[in-house]
Every structure is written in structure tokens, then in C-alpha cells.
Amino acid sequence: MPQYHIWTIGCQMNKAESERLGAFFEQRGYQATATAEEADIIVLNTCVVRGSAEDRVINKLDALKALKSLRPNVTLAVTGCWVNSNVEQLRENSPHVNHFFGPGVLPSEGPQWLEKGEGGQVLPRHPLPSTYVPIIQGCNNFCSYCIVPYRRGREKSRPLAEIICEVRELVQRGTKEVTLLGQNVDSYGHDLPDRPHLAELLSELDTVDGLARIRFLTNHPKDMSSRLIEAIANLDKVCEQICLPVQSGSDDILKAMRRGYTVEHYRQLITEIRSKIPGVALSTDVIVGFPSESQEQFQQTYDLLSELRFDTVHIAGYSPRPGTVAAGELEDNTPADEKRRRLNEIEQLQENIATEINARLSGKTVEVLVEGKKGEKWQGRTRTDKLVFFNSNNNCLGQVMPIKIKQTSPWALQGKLEGQSDN
Ligand code: SF4
Description:
Layout: E1 3-8, H1 12-27, E2 31-32, E3 41-46, H2 51-70, E4 75-80, H3 87-93, E5 99-100, E6 130-137, H4 148-152, E7 156-157, H5 160-172, E8 177-182, H6 198-205, E9 213-217, H7 226-234, E10 241-243, H8 251-256, H9 263-276, E11 281-288, H10 295-308, E12 312-317, H11 325-329, H12 336-359, E13 365-374, E14 377-381, E15 387-390, E16 400-408, E17 413-417
Parallel strand pairs: 1-2, 1-3, 3-4, 4-5, 6-8, 8-9, 10-11, 11-12, 15-17
Antiparallel strand pairs: 6-7, 13-14, 13-16, 14-15, 16-17
Bound molecules: iron/sulfur cluster.
Iron/sulfur cluster binds next to helix 4.
């Protein structure tokens, strides 16, 4: 049986697309293999959102040169955001790669070099209790630092009926939780003929029997509407957890980033969300060391995070991405060690905040969807996306279980099954 190997880095969208690509190969008689050395087809699903991710792609491609010269019949394909529109140039630089295809090409649409079979809807091979479902591709925002709109193109939503059909199918195969994915998920539907709103999709999915939870990411503050907030508040299966990247606490930096909102607008959104969705868990993304960010502007970001107290903060040091407006027009003038210092300061702040937020769960019983095992322990997540570990001799996979929290940390919680003795 021919074998395939997919190497994936980057965001959840890449992971979801690799899952579907794997299913596409398996429908055509291929079997997954853990290492590239044994594979007949190798696919690299790449990311260039940061310089470090791009370096990993280049190193990986270099490492595969030796394998290609030993086994020239191996097919090497590259997809993901590293694949730009200048494929001729890519071919010239990496002649050992057989095929390049752009990110977001769902397997049912291609890639043509493998399109021998029936096509049609392709679902992940082994639906897990928790599964990602891409609902909108691309981005129309053109934040000045971001390469995504250039690589993934403009926003393209999947029809509502198609998504519902796919989720029903996943649930029949054992999925309990879906995470709807999009670079800009809260603008879902605006490009479709009947302009369905994300709130509408959520309310349709809420009626799917057997589905326990619905999440979605990533949101853009300028598209987060009261209608969507109400839907999260009112629909039982939609988890009280929202990812809303702020990026900076300075209006001047937000303007230079071309984010399209002010700090005050963002603050009001958080107030509205917290007043309508009690117990909501909030996460955000922040970039430090954006071109011209002064110590004072950095401090504004620090102060905003101290004020709003997120459950999780994803922090990145600015890294210029060739082809973006910021890389072309703005000087990357914060030294690397200063970016690192700012990053560490926020990490430390966030560790303290997360310690305090999670400590409040100590002694409480939470509902955990069990996703798998780590060592001897079962692991799963609360509705608010907290990672929880506990012991049980039974097979708990895919079950929603009441877990009493015994111990907390900024990153994870330890608990025991409600009603179980301590020994
Ligand atoms: S919203 Fe901005 S940061 Fe997010 S994918 Fe679009 S351009 Fe990039």
C-alpha cells in the first residue's frame, strides 16, 4: 500500500487542512506513515506568520533534499502560507519539490496531481471528540504586519448548509465538540448570496443532536457584533469562551497596524461581553515591538492587559514579513533584546493573572470533555477551555464528565472524578 506523510506547522487552520488532506489520500488508497523516510508522498503544510516558522520550512526543505536524491521517485509537495503566487520562483529555488499548491485548497477541489478519485466532501480520517471545521478562508483586512491576505486570498465562506451537513456527519462518527475556524471567523457569511450571519450558523448547529459543544476562532474586534454576543449568551452548546485579539493597547500603534478599531472600542466590547456572558473566558493576542512602539506605548499595552485580565494571552515579538505594508514602509526599530524584554514582562504579568483566575476554580466541579490521555492521566477541557487532568481506570474518551478541581496552575488544572475518593 502506498504511504503518505504530512508535516504540519502553524495555526489550527493548517492542522484542520492537513487532517482533510490525510483523508483525501486515504480515500485514494494511501496509508499514513509517521516519518518522511518511509513515505511515497510527502506534503509540507507550511506557515510564514513569523520569521521563525519560515526558517523551519526552509530547514525542512533542505533536509529533504538528501532524501529526494536517495529516492527520486518520492513525490514532494508543499502547501500552506509559504506558497506564494510566484510559483516559478519557488520551483527555481527548490527544484526538488514536485508540486506547490496554495493554502486552503480543500482536497475536494484538488490538488490535481492526485485527483483520480471521486472528489466530493472529505472529512477528517478519525473524528476526534473535538474536531476543527473550517468555515471561512482568507482575510479582507490587510493588517499592516500580516501576510495572510496575500497568501490565503480574500474571504470565502462555505455555504451554511454544507457546514451543518458536515457537522452532522462528524457527530455520527463520534465528534462531541466542533471548533469553527476562520482567519476572521466573525465575518462569516457576508460574501454568500443570502448573507447568513455567524449567529445564524451557531443557532442551527445548536440543534444538532449528539453535539455537546461549539467553539469558534479567531474573531476580529471590528466584526464582533452584539448579535453574536447574544447568540453566545443564549445558545446552550456555544461555549462561554471568546478569542478576541487586541494586538496593542496604544491607539497610535493600532492605527499603524491598520486594525480598524480603537482601544476604547475594544474595552467597550469586553464590557458588553462580560455583562452578557457571565463566567466567560477571554483570550487575546498581542504583538510587542511593532515599528516605532515606544516604551510608553508598550506600557499602555501592559496596562490594558492588567486592567482587562484575560484568561490567556498569546504574545509575539514583531517580525517583519516581506510583502506586507509594515515591512515595506516601517522601520523595524526595536532591538531584538528589547522585544524579548517586553515579551517577558507581559508573560510574567499574564502568568500572575492566570494563576489567580485559575485558583478560583479550586474545589469547584467543572464539566470536562475528555479528549485523550497524557501518560497515565486523562485530559480534557472545560467549556472555558481550561486544560484538566484526572485519573480513571475506565475509558473516558469522548465523555463529558464532572471533575472536581484539586490543584491549579496558570496552565492546567488537576482534578478527580466527582464522587471519587482521594485514594
Ligand atoms: S485580521 Fe489581520 S492579522 Fe488577522 S488574518 Fe486578517 S490581516 Fe492577518
